[in-house]
Amino acid sequence: MGPLRVTDIRRDSVPKWENRYREVLDATAVEFAERSYLGASMRDIAERLGVRAASLYYYLPSKGAALLTICKLGVLDFIDNLKGIIARPDPAPEKLRAAITNHLLPLRSRPAADYIRVFVLHRHELPDGARQEVGRLARTYQNLIRQIFTDGIAAREFASDLNPELATLGLLGLCNSVIAARSLPPAATIDDFIAEYSRIFIRGTIPESTTKQKGRRGE
After folding, report:
1. Contact, 197 vs 175, CB < 8 A?
2. How many Å is the Cα radius of gyration of the chain?
């Protein structure tokens, strides 16, 4: 996943303003992830940045506007990356592995992980209008995941009786559980989760030798 993009910024802004704007957004994402959207205040964000709270309004008109921008940043790169994955001439299982990696890899570092946690945990706290806007982005992402399953079934690379809708919900639920977890196994890395979840979804949990033995008994 590449660097998160700054969207919805002023067209006439200079690089210095843009850089500071991004610092403010990063600090806000961290505060929302650590304290929750309702628990964090503009004063908390200002203290993290070492500035007066009043100066934040030059960059963020409101806490709600900050939440909207952070939620959008938390999903837009996911969507772009996933479109690129689907466009590759790779087999469906490899696209699925890449999609899982795309979903979990940002959790390796902060503040990228905080943007994603805020999107997953706090987008429902957006007001009407903004919540629907972010919801449309979430559905776009979900539809792209479903397309990998649908294309894989059509290419006979996934089981013909696989339900793409339920498989999509299962995959997102599994990956989002890592994002939303308050604590994870201390010995497990994000790469471990990527490898294990890819194995579960691509090969299942039954040993291949067991599957072959059952097939021979049924002959």
Report:
1. yes
2. 20
**Which tokens is 210 given?**
């067991």
> Would you call the peptide bond into 91 cis, given omega within 30 degrees of 0 as the criterion?
no
Helices 112-122 & 15-35 angle (0-180, nearest 10):
60
Its pTM stands at 0.81
CA dihedral 119, 85, 93, 187 (to 10 degrees): -50
Domains contained in the chain, CATH given: 65-206 (1.10.357.10)
Measured CA to CA, the distance from residue 46 to residue 44 in angstroms comes to: 5
Per-residue pLDDT of the chain (219 residues; tens, 9 = 90+): 444 554 444 444 567 777 888 888 999 999 999 999 899 888 888 888 888 888 888 888 888 888 999 999 888 888 999 999 999 999 999 999 999 999 999 888 888 889 999 998 899 999 899 899 999 999 999 999 999 999 999 999 999 999 999 999 999 999 998 888 777 788 888 999 999 999 998 888 777 654 445 445 444
Distance between CA atoms of residues 119 and 112, nearest Å:
11
